[in-house]
Design brief:
This protein has a domain of about 35 residues. It has one helix and two strands. The chain has a two-stranded antiparallel ribbon with strand order 1-2.
Length: about 60
């Protein structure tokens, strides 16, 4: 709980807005063949961008 609150405070202090986040899809909106980009961190703090394709939805 404390970690979540400190992250929220950090977002607010840096001027980060949640409106800047990309829209999220629900599972019912996902279709095989859809493409997108995934941002992740593999090591350290470097953000890596990966091409993503939906193969199927269960």
């Amino acid at each position: 709980m404390m970690r979540w609150l400190s992250m929220l405070l950090g977002f607010l202090l840096t001027g980060y807005t949640f409106a800047a986040l990309p829209p999220l899809l629900t599972v019912s909106e996902l279709r095989p063949g859809m493409r997108g980009k995934t941002l992740t961190v593999m090591q350290g703090t470097e953000i890596v961008e990966l091409e993503t394709e939906i193969l199927g939805v269960q």
